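User: Fold this; tokens only.

Assistant: Input:
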Amino acid sequence: MSDLLAIAYLLKGDYEKCLHYVELFKKSFNLDEFDEIYKEEINFIENIANNLKNGVIKKEEWLNRLNEIYADVLNQPLPESYKEAYHNHFLDEVLAYYILKEFIEKITKKKLFKKLLLKRYKLKTYKFKSLLVSSNISISGVYFDYCCHPNYGDDIVGILKDHKVYIHHKMCSQVSQMLNSKIKMVFVDWDKSELKERYDLIVSIENHRGALANFLQYLAKLDIDLLSIRTEKDTITNNYISYFELEIETKEQSIDKIRKNLELKTKVIQITNIKDSYQK
């Protein structure tokens, strides 16, 4: 059971407890009594935990070693019956392989750095709308400075001043100048639960008083934020007509679902994801 607890605490990010249960397993059992894969697995988990505890990531090396350890397992056919599977540890080894593989592939320096900071300095995480701030002192507010305007998802840094955090784009020229003046910084990141997509939208709205206002109220009801709006001109008569181009923002990821909801109230001429447009 200690080996399973070691894996569980490794996945949880508690590397000290992971190493404790690895050591307990080694003291409780003679590893020579186990097959080669099992011995290699225990030593492999210990190696990963020791490195992560010290902030070291060896992703490629670990993935290569993982494939070496489980090479024979991966080349075996799966059991054809429940009885056959029940009486051997083959499926346990397959499961362990894929659990460890996913864990190694997903771990990043940013996530590890944050875990180590939170544990070492007992940081408190503050949430300000779509931003998360981790600090060992109280934070009264978060502000975007005048010099740069990072978009959601951009790499950002947090400058601490009088219990306030000023957000800058990682590549902001002001930040490089501040770094030479021994400024205080805090760990900041975007709240992934607040992830939103931006869309360009062209709609045709009925030409009568209050039609646009009613449509904008409907957007708010759908939890869609309006970022900008402009009217379109008739190229023949040069008159403004009831076509509007909007930039909107929403958590909804499906264009088809957005279009379906909007078409309950108006005619959608075009809708495109801005991110997709930039990638073309």
